[in-house]
């Protein structure tokens, strides 16, 4: 499956038993948190609405507590942590009273909850420290531990708690990793050691250790500049790291690493280079259980992937991309742990700019701006594989650039940038094919985004060059649109999302 966003900066999947039901994506530019329902059988994500922060700027990182009751998001610009209650049925987020907002250090860039669900740790990028908090098990609210945050390296960017809940590891842009022990009673941190990340070239901020993941015995660091992965042994008593030589070669500009729940395999996203064709990949490594050494077992192509996470059953992996602004879903072979991309289609038309999946997870639709067409695919419920339903159909307007399906799965709406219109289609419940409902409805100038609210009653269109948003009522019987109002926006709105409760 594929999900869009303007600037995805963090993704988390609820880690509860049974397998996770909801996934959350922090979108800094859109000032929103996207909510997805996780299909327990296929691992596919179904878009479930948005939570808009209303702050003018968005969350940079999000983490969910192990019970799945609370989510914590850090706001880079306001230097705050927000606590949200999670609706167990819908996955929607609710911000409580003023006690749900807690000050962090300067420019918090990463937040994580420890495995016990008792403590929260935040890496503060500008103040160069780590803040620690206790969690109220009833309300989810945070209380700061100790008077001052504990010192980290220069510009800490990622904070990770080991599976035992005994140690914290922080990657710093000063090309090193800080290690702390956790007082399991109070949650307080004690600095242990700092080790070099062996990034190879510490001349710029992006050349430090960019991500860290772990198994109970070993820690792995993806080094962006030197295009390799460093391995460290973890002292089970002190948590200290010992370098295991040599570093293992990765692809071009490795940006993230994750370990399969089995502990047998590791996945590394290689962002790639604009000057090296085909250098954007995901590498799979076998983990030697005795030594921690990684051995490359497979590589798959990807579109400038920035981060990878593996859900708790180990059946599916999700990968974000900052160039295509999506999350790709991959099926994991349980025998070999190799990845096979699912839920992604190469559109039959020219210049696909938007893709969406209907709520049932049976069909996918892609808007092809260059060829003025809409591609339709059926989705195999077991494998997630896409199959073209028919030849790409002619769009109802010029240069279709955005496509959305209403929550009932009965109607599809397409914004046509070239003709300044919105086309409406009914969906054949059996085949997924589209039939035009009526003549296209007028929009503003250069409509760049169309969105249907979670109730399915209204559609909203952002018109980039007329700097406004038009609202339309949706006829519940026919799906036809009727203009109900226009609101002036800031200059050139290019994306719109809606806030509501999923029923």
Write up what this structure looks like.
The chain has 503 residues and is mainly β. The protein has no helices and 44 strands. Strands 5, 6, 7, 8 and 9 form a 5-stranded antiparallel sheet that branches. A hairpin with a 4-residue loop joins β6 (70-75) and β7 (80-86). The protein is globular.
Average pLDDT metric: 78
Query: Any low-confidence stretches, pLDDT <50, length ≥5?
Result: 1-8, 13-19, 199-208, 497-503
Number of helices: 0
Radius of gyration: 23 Å
End-to-end gap: 22 Å
> Largest sheet, described in full?
5 strands, antiparallel
Category from helices, strands and their pairing: mainly beta
Counting DSSP E segments of at least 2 residues, the number of strands comes to 44
By oligomeric state, this entry counts as single chain
Helix content: under 10%
| Percent range for β-strand residues | over 45%
Overall geometry comes to: globular
């Amino acid at each position: 499956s594929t999900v869009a966003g303007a600037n995805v900066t963090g993704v988390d999947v609820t880690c509860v038993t049974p397998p996770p039901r909801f996934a959350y994506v922090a979108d800094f530019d859109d000032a929103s948190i996207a909510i997805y329902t996780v299909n327990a059988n296929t691992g596919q994500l179904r878009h479930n609405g948005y939570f808009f922060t209303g702050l003018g700027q968005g969350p940079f990182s999000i983490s969910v507590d192990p019970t799945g009751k609370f989510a914590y998001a850090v706001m880079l610009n306001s230097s705050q942590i927000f606590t949200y209650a999670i609706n167990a049925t819908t996955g929607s987020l609710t911000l409580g009273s003023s006690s749900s907002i807690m000050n962090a250090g300067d420019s918090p860039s990463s937040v994580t909850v420890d495995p016990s669900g008792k403590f929260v740790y935040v890496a503060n990028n500008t103040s160069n420290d780590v803040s620690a908090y206790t969690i109220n098990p009833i309300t989810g609210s945070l209380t700061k531990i100790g008077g001052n945050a504990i010192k980290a390296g220069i510009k800490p960017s990622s904070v990770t708690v080991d599976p035992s809940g005994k140690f914290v590891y922080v990657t710093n842009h000063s090309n090193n990793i800080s290690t702390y022990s956790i007082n399991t009673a109070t949650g307080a941190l004690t600095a242990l050691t700092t080790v070099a990340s062996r990034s190879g070239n510490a001349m710029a901020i992006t050349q430090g250790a960019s991500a860290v993941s772990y198994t109970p015995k070993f820690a792995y660091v993806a080094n962006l500049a030197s295009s390799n992965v460093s391995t460290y042994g973890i002292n089970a008593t002190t948590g200290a790291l010992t370098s295991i030589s040599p570093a293992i070669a990765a692809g071009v500009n490795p940006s993230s690493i994750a370990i399969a729940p089995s502990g047998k395999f590791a996945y590394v996203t290689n962002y790639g280079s604009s000057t090296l064709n085909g250098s954007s990949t995901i590498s799979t490594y076998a983990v030697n259980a005795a030594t921690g050494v990684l051995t490359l077992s497979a590589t798959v192509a990807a579109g400038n992937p920035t981060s990878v996470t593996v859900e708790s059953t180990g059946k599916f992996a999700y990968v974000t991309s900052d160039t295509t602004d999506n999350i790709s879903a991959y099926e994991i072979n349980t025998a070999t742990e190799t990845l096979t991309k699912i839920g992604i289609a190469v559109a039959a038309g020219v210049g696909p700019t938007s893709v969406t999946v209907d709520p049932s997870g049976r069909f996918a639709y892609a808007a092809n701006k260059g060829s003025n067409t809409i591609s339709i695919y059926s989705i195999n419920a077991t494998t997630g594989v896409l199959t073209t339903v028919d030849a790409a159909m002619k769009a109802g307007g010029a240069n279709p650039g955005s496509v959305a399906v209403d929550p009932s799965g009965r109607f599809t709406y397409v914004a046509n940038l070239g003709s300044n219109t919105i086309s409406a289609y009914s969906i054949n419940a059996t085949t997924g094919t589209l039939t035009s409902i009526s003549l296209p409805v007028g929009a503003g100038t250069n409509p760049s985004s169309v969105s249907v609210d979670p109730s399915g009653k209204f559609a909203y269109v952002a018109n980039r060059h007329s700097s406004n948003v038009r609202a339309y009522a949706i006829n519940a019987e026919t799906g036809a649109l009727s203009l109900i109002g226009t609101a002036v926006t800031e200059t050139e709105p290019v994306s719109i999302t809606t806030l509501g409760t999923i029923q």
